[in-house]
Amino acid sequence: MPPRGSNFIITNNNELPSNFKNWNGDNNYLLSAPRGIRNNNPGNLIYTNIKWNGKLPKEQNKDWRFEIFIAPEYGARAMIKVLKHDIEKGKNAVPALIEEYATKFENNTAAYINTIYQDLKVNKTAKLLPAKNTLRLLVLSITRVENGGNYSSSELFDKAYSMI
User: Fold this and answer.
1) Are 119 and 139 in contact (CB under 8 A)?
2) How far is CA 143 from CA 1, 26, 35, 103, 157, in A?
């Protein structure tokens, strides 16, 4: 197993399923794209045993640590569900939500939180509701922080949200 925190990708001999679609709509794995984009996992959700819709099975997963989805909307859908669940269980302030979502051992959590405040245009005492527009702003902001660019869109969010 690669060292913790490395960006090493384990490639396996299994081909991607024929229904795999990357951010460009093609069927290939975008090796040069940021990790969350090449994995169709814009929130960089860590691999779990959760049976997400559109999740590649472990034997087809090319990343030793993170989930891979068959299309970007499935990764965005999983991200929406995680954020919605966390807000509903009481992580409804930006610091509590981001400290749960992006742990300090691998993120500059303070900078992450400040970016979310700026993008959501909320003050530090704001309580978040799991409303569609709040989730949209969170997904767009988190995707940008996690992947270093504006890869997501409202259209992708709407497609993912409609699948919940």
Assistant:
1) no
2) 27, 20, 11, 16, 11
Gyration radius of the chain over CA positions: 15
Residue 69 CB coordination number (10 Å): 24
- Per the CB < 8 A criterion, the answer to whether 34 and 3 are in contact is no
Two structure tokens written together for 98: 């981001």
Cα–chain center distance at 158: 15
Over residues 24-35, the pLDDT tens digits come to 999 999 999 999
> DSSP characters for 47-77?
P-S---TTBPPGGG---SSB--BSSHHHHHH
Percentage of the chain surpassing pLDDT 70? Answer: 91
